[in-house]
């Protein structure tokens, strides 16, 4: 059975609620592990993609890491270097995560856009 871990990068996300209110979530790293089979990557700017990824993330214990539209932040690079995933599931279209960012992620693992 695959070993999974919930790892959250210390980023502050603003997620709009249905009522239009804003709530702040500040994920924290919950555990350390040397490697991870799969990670999910979503745009830090797209709360919809992050919310869509949260179900599979929680059910399977897969961490969600965040990127900017055209780049991979240092915190995410560091997490990818530490986790050494075999696969990256990229959540979001090219408007949210550019081909440039996807190419950068491919340096860390096999990347599949979902």
Structural domain tally: 1
* Beta-strand percentage range: 15-25%
- Low-confidence segments, ≥5 residues, pLDDT <50? 1-31
N- to C-terminal distance: 23 Å
Count of distinct strands: 6
Alpha carbon gyration radius: 13 Å
Structural class: alpha/beta
Number of helices: 3
Shape descriptor reads: globular
Largest sheet: 4 strands, parallel
Rounded mean pLDDT is 77
| Element string (H = helix, E = strand) | EEEHEHEHE
Provide a descriptive summary of the structure in words.
This protein is an alpha/beta fold. The protein has one domain (about 15-114). Helix content is about 25%, strand content about 25%. The chain has helices spanning about 45-60, 75-85, 100-105; strands at about 15, 20-25, 40-45, 65, 85-90, 110-114. The strands form 2 sheets. It has a 4-stranded parallel sheet, sandwiched between helices. Strands 1-2 form a two-stranded antiparallel ribbon. The model is unreliable at about 1-30 (pLDDT under 50).
